[in-house]
Write a structure and sequence with these properties.
The chain is an alpha+beta fold. The protein has helices spanning 4-10, 13-16, 59-75, 89-97; strands at residues 24-33, 39-47, 81-88. The longest helix is centred in the C-terminal third of the chain and has 17 residues, at 59-75. 15% of the residues are buried.
Length: 98
C-alpha cells in the first residue's frame, strides 16, 4: 500500500491530464475499510460549481476521469480498492459541515 501523501501527489488533477467538461477542481482522499472489512480508498472528485451544469455530469463525461484515477492507482501498484465518487465543491462543503 502506498502512503496517502504519495497517492495525493499521484492524483493531482493538473498532472492527470483530465478531460473537460466537467472541470475537476481537486481530489479528496480518505483511507478506510469497505463493507467486507477490506482496505479501501474513498475518493471524491470535486467538480467546479461554476462550470458544472447538470448535463455535464453524465457517465459519458466522467467515465474517463474515473478510468484515469483507477489506472493511475493500478500503475502505482495500489492494492486498496478505489471507491470513486463525484460531487461539486459546494456539495462536498455542505456534507463536511453537517
Amino acid at each position: 500500500m502506498n502512503a496517502l501523501a504519495d497517492i495525493r501527489k499521484l492524483l493531482e488533477p493538473a498532472s492527470l491530464g483530465l478531460p473537460e467538461p466537467p472541470r475537476v477542481v481537486r481530489i479528496e482522499l480518505e483511507e478506510g475499510f469497505d463493507s467486507t472489512g477490506d482496505p479501501a480508498l474513498y475518493i471524491w472528485v470535486l467538480l467546479d460549481d461554476e462550470t458544472t451544469l447538470h448535463d455535464e455530469v453524465t457517465w459519458q463525461n466522467v467515465k474517463q476521469i474515473n478510468r484515469t484515477i483507477r489506472d493511475t492507482l493500478r500503475d502505482a501498484d495500489e492494492q486498496r480498492w478505489p471507491y470513486v465518487r463525484f460531487r461539486t465543491e459546494s456539495e462536498h462543503r455542505t456534507l463536511i459541515e453537517e
